[in-house]
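Last lecture ended with a question: if I hand you only a sequence, what can you say about the shape of the protein? Today we answer it with a concrete record. The protein is HDOD domain-containing protein. Below, first the input exactly as provided, then the predicted structure, then a couple of comments.
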Amino acid sequence: MTEINWTQLREHALQGCSLDALPSTVSLPALPIAVTRFIERSRDERTTLKQLAAIVETDTGLTVELLRHVNSSYIGLREKAKTAQQALAVLGLRQSKLFVITTGTQAAVLARRSKLLNQNCFWNSCLQKALFAREVAKLLKTDPELAFSGALLQDYLLPVLTNDLYPVYARFTEERTEQPECLVAYEDAQFRWNHATAGALLAVRWKLPDELVCCILFHHRGLHILADPQLARSPVAAVAISALLPDQLRQNLYGLAQLVFLQQKWPGFDLQTLVEQVDSEHAALGMGVENAFPLSRWCQQALTARAAL
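The predicted structure:
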């Protein structure tokens, strides 16, 4: 498979797009200073893990989350990491960067309230999609950690948008069956932009890696992504498939039906097995996100219908 030029792909897809298209009533979040500094310094090959760890340690919350993640059962260390530097050494630079970015982005958005979304439920669904995308990425034989981070952040801007543009998004939820099949189609009709494009543009402003920007930008492509010669077996495809899972907003009205259809066409893709794997990993992850609404519960109707066949 030809290596993807993520920068070229991102630049072409976002050509002519600008955050200036968003209404002035939308107050965009800012990344924590430690995260911004970490991203900037990590671009310099001369920067050491010790120097990056010193940046992480300026943010207590980020340090705690890093150590919690590295010492979780998912990583499976024999000896617990006790410092940020040890934790970064375990993950390596690339995974450390993805973790710092995703954690910092969550912190930036969690600091804001949403009139429409329950934040705990929202991030619970995001984590489910991330775990699902990671498993799908393994099936596609592509980067599972990029798929995880991309899926976790695919909708990161929705709490801000649904709060600052509450009447428009409230109408979508209140009249769901009368609206377009996908949230992005509704947004395009209402605003001439959507949360995927806005999220990608803000990620570019934050200087996030282009491959992560593309995961955010293309996450709404659904199963059509599997016909894309460039992206069909990339982390972007895993994220797009995860976006078909149900959530508070019912972003894709027939997403579950599409996943059931996919398993009929792809022998390696078993929805029941993937859902059970996600719930198991979610319970053991130890990321501080309560799994009050397991994915199996979200998918119960589709799984029951499949079992009856």
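Comments.
1. Residues 256 and 299 are 7 Å apart (CA to CA).
2. The chain has a mean pLDDT of 91.
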